[in-house]
Write a structure and sequence with these properties.
The chain is an alpha/beta fold. The protein has six helices and eight strands. The chain starts with 9 loop residues before the first helix and ends with a helix.
């Protein structure tokens, strides 16, 4: 049962975010969607800003016995966030990290041929997802980005809990949100339509956004 229908779907939420981001006037923006759902939200933002759309990939570290609870997250280049290593054995942790890294690498291989080749130095990286639950993937991506020569790192999401995870806040220069409901169950509860996004669908949004930019 739905708690709230704050957004019609991911793309519509992205359009609403785009309005706020355009008003904030990011310098030399470069938009990153977190696959897969975050790419759908990010596409209209990149189109409104007239900039490239790229992807930022990380996967949650979970145990097979409890796949809904994130113990951390890892990026494709091995940057890792540990949120619960103490809750499992060293062997379980090692296997969980390997599985997460393999999933992240699989996504990267799918998206790499279609990613834009742009210089990131002095750009404002705008990291976009369809919402924040644990914040593990966003936190580890933001931490990895902080080691790169971006001018600033912004985060844009339609919905997030009232209490933003400190691991995110410490690495983000500006946060743009549409809603912060008092009762937060899961991201999907705040969308009227929240279907699973396939890799093919996310790739379509990525390609369309960048092709439109090339044609302009």
């Amino acid at each position: 049962m739905k708690v709230l229908d704050l957004f019609e779907d991911r793309y519509t939420a992205g359009l609403q975010l785009a309005d706020l981001i355009v008003k904030a006037k990011p310098a030399n923006p470069l938009v990153y969607g977190i696959p897969r759902g975050g790419v759908v939200v990010a596409a209209p933002i990149a189109q409104r800003l007239g900039c490239h759309l790229d992807v930022a990939i990380a996967k949650k570290i979970v145990l097979p016995t409890n796949p809904e609870t994130a113990l951390g997250a890892v990026t494709t280049d091995g940057y890792m966030l540990d949120m619960g290593k103490e809750y499992c054995t060293p062997s379980e942790w090692s296997h969980a990290v390997q599985n997460a890294r393999a999933k992240a690498d699989g996504l990267l291989n799918a998206f790499n041929p279609f990613r834009p080749h742009v210089e990131i130095a002095d750009t404002t990286a705008i990291l976009v997802d369809d919402g924040i639950a644990t914040g593990a993937t966003i936190a580890v991506i933001a931490a990895a980005m902080k080691t790169m020569p971006y001018r600033e790192i912004w985060l844009a999401v339609p919905v997030a809990p009232l209490r933003m995870p400190s691991a995110i806040v410490s690495h983000i220069d500006k946060i743009i949100l549409l809603e912060r409901p008092e009762v937060f169950v899961s991201v999907s509860y705040f969308y009227r339509h929240f279907p699973e996004v396939t890799t093919a669908e996310a790739l379509s949004y990525l390609q369309s956004a960048n092709l439109e930019l090339s044609a302009s």
